[in-house]
Amino acid sequence: MNIHEYQAKELLRQYAVPVPAGSVAHSVEQAVAVAEELGVSRFVIKAQIHAGGRGKAGGVKLAHTVEEVRAATDEMIGRPLITAQTGPQGQRVQRVLIEQAVDIAREHYFGFVIDRASQRITIIACDGGGVEIEETARNEPARIVREAVDPAVGLLDFQCRKVAAHLGLGGKHLPAAVKLMKALYRCFRDNDAVLIEINPLAVTLDGQLLALDAKMQFDDNAIYRRPHISNLRDFDEEDPKEVEAAAHGLNYIALEGNVGCIVNGAGLAMATMDAIALHGGRPANFLDVGGGASPEKVANAFRIVLLDKNVKAVLVNIFAGINRCDWVAEGIVRAMRELNVKVPVVVRLAGTNVEQGRAVLAQSGLNFLTANNLDDAAAMAVRATSGATAHEHLYK
Amino acid sequence: MSIFINKSSRVVIQGLTGQHGSFHAEESIKIGTQVVAGVTPGKGGTKHLGIPVFDTVHEAVARTGADVAGIFVPPPFAADAIMEAIDTGIRTIVVVADGIPVQDMVRVKRYSAGRDVVIVGPNTPGVITPNECKVGIMPAHIYKPGMIGVVSRSGTLNYEAVEQMAEYKLGQSTCVGIGGDTVTGTDFLTVMRAFKGDPDTEAVVMIGEIGGSQEIEAAAWAKDHLGKPLVCFIAGLTAPSRRRMGHAGAVIAGPADTAAAKMERIEALGAHVVRNPSKIGEAVHHALR
User: Fold this and answer.
1) Which residues of B112-123 are buried (b: 16+ CB within 10 A; e: fewer)?
2) Which GO terms describe its molecular function (chain B) (predicted)?
3) Is the Cβ pair B156, A319 closer than 8 Å?
4) In chain B, what are the domain boundaries?
5) Which of B139, B182, B235 lies at the smallest CB-CB distance from A271?
């Protein structure tokens, strides 16, 4: 789960991590009020959307007067912001963060992640700020420092000093740097974060360390024990189809193709998408119905997949282990009847109760394309899309 | 032979009395698995499915000689259950529980460091040695005894590969799902080392996916040490960047995480890379010739 920058900074304040003075505004009037209360000579207005790349996309503006704050906010709020990460339709800006602008002497990248290699909470830091960390790690690995935390003893002072030294935060900066790193570690650990990224971590002209930006992600599997984090979820930032799917226990991700996919298991769902591509088609979505899928769940999967109007055929690929093919088949039949499905439906069933499942489909009297294996299923689904409307492939 | 589990394995199911534990214990007994004990705190002294239930894993081990643990407890309690099993000295632990907080697993990994234990999972379909022993949730009837070792992150792709192999009359020595999480008990390399040591495994199938580099590390080791054909498929050629594709660990964070990049690296390391998920069985067949 992601949260907004302003929410992350409020959390950081609770851990005594220094952040610029400022507050969130949901309207132009609120932005003006925040600016007046700040009473400073320079402001930063930052669009609050989850996607990155805001700076380059015009989502971060500088202002010198309250009137300029008003104008900048007016330009952002209520409009879509298109960044490298939002996709071409952009993400509507619902709120902005108004902050005091600071004079920056130096910038660094500082983050905590769950590191796959060490399998531990790990600091990743870089002497330069505002960098794309993955790219820097690839091209200039010497600039990156990693420090894994032993969970038995937690983050130790000396580890912080090592990292600080790498960043050039020795000497007079050292006590503040150590304090900041340990506070961030506590914030990460105690909230079940999976990513905290301070990019940039700034040293101001007057020698203060300051978290100028903050990005946080939390472990979906641990949200049950972090209600204060769960409350920060902003459903406007998520695809409504994905939100609804999750409410039904389905894992759905919208894509840009026209073959709707209903599959069990994340790996098989990806492989099914891949098979569609190998046959020259494009998947419209990733969808994992999970284990123990009831007829209701499968019917809901159909409904959600068909909300996407680009879908020209549906491919159901089930390899039942803990699932039951007969239940899945009942769900397919129910969905076909209730939703009056007009696009071709290709079904491939395998595994537990496969014969019963095929019987349910056969007895329904409905029109399915049945496939015996993944390859045939993908080929049939792709053919079905082009058969329906040959020109549909031309969209985007 | 086989790896990790066989017909002599004595299995304790933690969470035996729960719905999932109960169902899958019965299923695994059908293929000959010796489920000798169950553990459900608070239900010690009772019997379930005719199997004695204990309050602690220690009691279960002391009284029944259990040497493999299958963990079916709900995710919030799973880390504690795993560490309890580790503490008894059990050397094979299969964690079927799905949705364990990643920081819990970080602590489990720390707790298990330096101990002689293999933790398979979490979020694994389990481990099966066909017709001998199953600790997990896979449909046992599709697995046939044979010479192919299969290791995958995904459960359903493990089934898919096995079904494809049946067309070529290829059975399996042991099949292992390592799970799709970011922090897992065991990785591809550990399982591959075990397959090397199993004289009855003649070829290994590794089914990976986007995210991380453990497939490449395993393939690099296999190049010089496995001494058996390695067939590999990586799922997620069509996965978009930065999205978690169902599995917590299946996310493309950088160019090296993509399926295309991983398959290219693995191919360069000498493995038989199959790009079509429908041709895994065929690729194994060819690799053996």
Assistant:
1) beeeebbbbbbb
2) nucleotide binding; succinate-CoA ligase (ADP-forming) activity; succinate-CoA ligase (GDP-forming) activity
3) yes
4) 1-123, 142-288
5) B235
